[in-house]
């Protein structure tokens, strides 16, 4: 990047101005494309190991599969699923608002709970989920999908499910914890706090717990970013769903670019045969764009599949 381009980025960050694809660092290598539309509220996209996208439509209580121009029902009911991912055994892990749990779909199709309670109290409404290479599952639990009078926990936590099924509360000082993603080396966990309009970063200890929480990126004035789901590419850049599109931050927290979308995005995922396609769930539609760097998680999965 030229010295002038660096200056433009720094000024834009200071002023809270979103850079478009053309004005930014050239992370996109194609135009944004709308793949499908007509949904109620799309969320939780993830690239299926069989080579297609699946995603949640929360109010429709459905997980859809997108293999062509028309989406097909992948699972219904879905428990009003939100965030989706695959574990190290390629089993689908889902955050289910309606059932207030994190579930896993066994190889025989049976859906069972990974976590539904903490210290005897029902979770709020698990929102988004990631799986570490050691098999531990990390998820956020804001109260978006539960009535206030039905809540049994008076805080909004971030949790870890260990290989033996134990549920550990990692952080409880979020206002609305939302999307989360690991850095490529899994030494840092990024977590969006939607109501605070910032992203936080935590160092991941050897035992899987978190420490050294700090604000990774924020945009002033508050309200312009409003972070939701997020993912990380192999260069460590953080892609996060914002108000006007997908905001991209460098590993140092510098705003590099905004991939503008016609509808407000909620989440995103890398996919495609080489991991270079960024899929974006934005309200009623699914969008995609080709990006320069592949996603870190899918790159590991693709490499594992080739072994």
What does this protein structure show overall?
By secondary structure, the chain is mainly beta. The chain has one domain (3-306): TolB, C-terminal domain (Neuraminidase, 6 Propeller). The chain is built from 2 helices and 26 strands. It has helices at residues 3-15, 296-306, and strands spanning 33-37, 42-48, 52-57, 62-66, 71-75, 81-86, 92-96, 101-105, 111-115, 117-118, 121-122, 129-131, 137-141, 156-161, 167-174, 177-182, 188-193, 198-204, 210-218, 230-232, 238-241, 245-249, 255-260, 267-271, 277-282, 285-290. The chain starts with a helix and ends with a helix. The relative contact order is 0.16. Mean pLDDT is 91; it is low at 1-24.
Highest CATH level, the class: Mainly Beta
Q: Which stretches are low in confidence, meaning pLDDT under 50 for 5 or more residues running?
A: 1-24
**General shape:** globular
CATH topology: Neuraminidase
The overall average pLDDT, rounded, is 91
Largest sheet: 4 strands, antiparallel
Alpha carbon gyration radius? 18 Å
- How much of the polypeptide forms β-strand, as a percent range? 35-45%
* Computed structural class: mainly beta
Instruction: Please report the distance between the alpha carbons of the first and last residues.
Output: 36 Å
Number of domains: 1
